[in-house]
Amino acid sequence: MTSTKSKTSTLKRRPRTVPAEEPPVDREEIKRRLLARRLREAQALASRMKILPDGTRVFLRFDRATRYQHLVLMSSFITLAITGLLQHFSHYTAIAKIVNWLGGAEALRTVHHLAAIFMIAVSIYHVWTIFET
């Protein structure tokens, strides 16, 4: 037989908590911190700004090593895409002529594998430099 007693009466209620008073906000201190942070950010950006001899200002977003990494990644990806597509569609007459003009299927495969090795190596180095900084 079931009890006629309500289940809600057996539940314990949590005592109400009174919110603590918040400390007073020092608006001047907040403004000083915000201004200091903006100044640090502006100085960091200004340190990457270069002025060319003709007076043109240039903002360098990446250093030379990072630009070189991106260049190798892009060129190896494009090489992989082109050589992979040429290998895949080599059964077409026009593509077969291009493959033969480039040295044959074996030469194309060798270039494809070398580009893959470059891309893997530079990708690992790229991820390592990202986590290091």
Helix count equals: 4
Order of helices and strands: HEEHHH
For the largest beta-sheet, the strand count, sense and barrel status come to: 2 strands, antiparallel
Beta-strand segment tally: 2
- Multimeric organization: single chain
Shape: elongated
Return the structural class.
mainly alpha
> Helical content, roughly?
55-70%
Strands ordered across the widest β-sheet: 1-2
Characterize this entry briefly:
With 133 residues, the chain is mostly helical.
Describe how the helices and strands are arranged.
Elements: H1 27-47, E1 49-51, E2 57-59, H2 64-88, H3 93-101, H4 105-132
Antiparallel strand pairs: 1-2
Helix pairs in contact: 2-4
